């Protein structure tokens, strides 16, 4: 049998650290739905869906059948030079469900390349070169996507390699950490001010504003309802376009097909990835026709993009989500999970805030509910203890637990996962988790 410690050791020898970071030491053997079994035979409830990718859970039969059929029949035929029926059908489905006027679709392989394409198109379409983006945002690791990512890691990278574009960063509307945690109106005003200043600073040179409709890796931050409608107006009044990065929120996760729909808005360009392929590498840019045609034919493509296997998987995801009513279900399950977690928040001093939409939920851990000082070490300990209790949960922003299970998870498994999470929180509060957990859990 393969040995867990041996695999981890060899991993660190040969795999470049630019690829990864340690959370908890799990070597998966197989997965079914929301459950992973590791090579030692231990089972875990996975509330991370492998970083918000496994929309339908592990090894979903419909994805296996659709992708398997395309794999056996043809495997690949490039859509750069020919016509692939699955890719066409997927594009038609994306054009149907995405809130973009007169949409055209371009395919890629990762969330990063979808955003990179959107950024290139924004420059080409507007003839302008400056971007407005958010502090602590994450859009990907390529030169363009990193350039507009406000998160610490990408700022560090860009400081070394130089920026692709001038970018003005503004704070994301985080009401919990604003002076107005209980007043959404004042919170909106508070966060619109720096955006107005940024737009004044840039004048008419802004090509686009890039946004996450819920800030994911920056801490699962849910904006107040009236914020983005005002932002869209301000940005469009200046002649800039709006790029909506739905890589982490897409395919119904937040209780709408797209999270920006909670605000009734129609962006100019939408980027999707992660959960679209249900575990297979596929991404897409869906944008207004004029924008999508502002670069020459073949100017933004990849040899393997539009591959029939990944397109068939994505079609299976969209159809399963639609036929089983999983968007509405994500909203309902998310509401139940939020209620449960608000109970956890009342019962535990460590839990400062619980927020989310649908099955995209953040649990922010603090040392003190008044000062809101981030409980960074405690968060790592919770993740470690959860792992010991048979639960996979990740964190972002140092102290925010990230709850993003598959959309088809049954309530009893979700509830059991949340109960294990509460147990882990209690164990950390009661001092039952030692400092050696900190050696294992790095996170980001
Ligand atoms: C909002 C958002 N955009 C883009 C990306 C990058 O996607 P990928 O890792 O598939 O390139 C991520 C990944 O975490 C993301 O959360």
Outline the structure in words.
- The chain has two domains: 4-59 and 325-440, Aspartate Aminotransferase, domain 1; 74-323, Aspartate Aminotransferase, domain 2 (3-Layer(aba) Sandwich), CATH 3.40.640.10.
- It is globular, with a radius of gyration of 21 Å.
- It has 15 helices and 15 strands.
- The mean pLDDT is 97.
- Helix 4 (85-97) crosses helix 11 (308-323) and helix 12 (326-347) runs parallel beside helix 14 (411-429).
- It has helices at residues 4-14, 49-52, 61-73, 85-97, 111-126, 143-147, 152-161, 184-202, 227-237, 289-292, 308-323, 326-347, 376-388, 411-429, 437-440, and strands spanning 28-32, 35-38, 43-46, 103-108, 130-134, 167-170, 206-211, 241-245, 269-272, 283-288, 351-357, 360-365, 391-392, 394-396, 400-403.
- The protein is an alpha/beta fold and 444 residues long.
- The structure holds pyridoxal-5'-phosphate.
- Residues 110-112, 115, 138-140, 212, 216-217, 245, 247-248, 273-274 line the site of pyridoxal-5'-phosphate.
Give descriptors for this structure:
single chain, 444 residues, alpha/beta, Aspartate Aminotransferase, domain 1, Aspartate Aminotransferase, domain 2, 2 domains, 7-stranded mixed β-sheet, 4-stranded mixed β-sheet, 15 helices, 41% helix, binds pyridoxal-5'-phosphate
Instruction: Identify the CATH class of the largest domain.
Output: Alpha Beta
Total strands: the figure is 15
Q: What level of helicity do the residues show? A: 40-55%
Total individual domains? 2
CATH architecture of the largest domain: 3-Layer(aba) Sandwich
Number of DSSP helices?
15
Bound small molecules, deduplicated: pyridoxal-5'-phosphate
CATH fold label of the largest domain: Aspartate Aminotransferase, domain 2
**CA-CA gap between termini:** 32 Å
Q: How does the major sheet shape up?
A: 7 strands, mixed
**Proportion of residues in β-strands:** 15-25%
- As a whole number of angstroms, the C-alpha radius of gyration is 21 Å
The strands making up the biggest β-sheet line up spatially as 4-10-9-8-7-5-6
């Amino acid at each position: 049998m393969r040995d867990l410690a041996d695999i981890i050791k060899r991993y660190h020898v040969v795999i470049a650290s630019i690829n990864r970071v340690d959370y908890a030491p799990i070597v998966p053997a197989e997965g079914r739905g929301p459950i992973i079994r590791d090579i030692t035979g231990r089972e875990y409830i996975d509330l991370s869906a492998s970083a918000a990718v496994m929309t339908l859970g592990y090894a979903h039969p419909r994805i296996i059948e659709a992708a398997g059929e395309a794999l056996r029949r043809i495997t690949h035929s490039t859509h750069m030079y020919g016509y692939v029926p699955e890719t066409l059908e997927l594009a038609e489905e994306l054009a149907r469900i995405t809130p973009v006027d007169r949409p055209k679709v371009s395919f890629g392989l990762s969330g990063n390349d979808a955003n990179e394409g959107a950024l290139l198109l924004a420059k080409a379409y507007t003839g302008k070169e400056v971007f407005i983006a958010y502090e602590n945002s994450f859009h990907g690791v390529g030169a363009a996507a990193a350039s507009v990512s406000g998160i610490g890691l990408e700022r560090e990278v860009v400081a070394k390699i130089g920026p692709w574009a001038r970018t003005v960063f503004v704070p994301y509307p985080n009401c919990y950490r604003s002076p107005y945690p209980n007043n959404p109106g004042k919170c909106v005003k508070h966060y619109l001010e720096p955006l107005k200043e940024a737009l004044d600073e840039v004048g008419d040179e802004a090509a686009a504003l890039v946004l996450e409709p819920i800030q994911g890796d920056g801490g699962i931050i849910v904006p107040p309802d009236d914020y983005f409608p005002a932002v869209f107006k301000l940005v469009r009044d200046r002649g800039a376009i709006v790029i909506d990065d739905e890589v982490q929120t897409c395919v119904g996760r937040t209780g709408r097909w797209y999270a920006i729909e909670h605000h009734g808005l129609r962006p100019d360009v939408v980027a999707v990835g992660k959960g679209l392929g249900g575990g297979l590498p596929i991404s897409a840019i869906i944008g207004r026709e004029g924008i999508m045609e502002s670069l020459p034919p073949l100017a933004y493509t990849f040899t393997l993009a539009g591959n029939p296997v990944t397109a068939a998987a994505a079609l299976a995801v969209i159809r399963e989500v639609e036929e089983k009513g999983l968007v509405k279900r994500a909203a309902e399950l998310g509401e139940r999970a939020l209620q449960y977690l608000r109970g956890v928040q009342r019962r535990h001093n460590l839990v400062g805030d619980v927020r989310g939409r649908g099955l995209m939920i953040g649990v922010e851990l603090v040392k003190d509910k008044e000062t809101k000082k981030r409980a960074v070490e405690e968060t790592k300990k919770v993740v470690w203890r959860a792992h010991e209790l048979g639960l996979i949960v990740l964190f972002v922003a140092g102290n925010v637990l990230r709850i993003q299970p598959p959309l088809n998870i049954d309530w009893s498994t979700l509830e059991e996962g949340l109960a294990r999470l509460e147990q882990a929180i209690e164990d950390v509060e009661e001092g039952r988790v030692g400092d050696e957990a900190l050696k294992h859990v790095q996170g980001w």
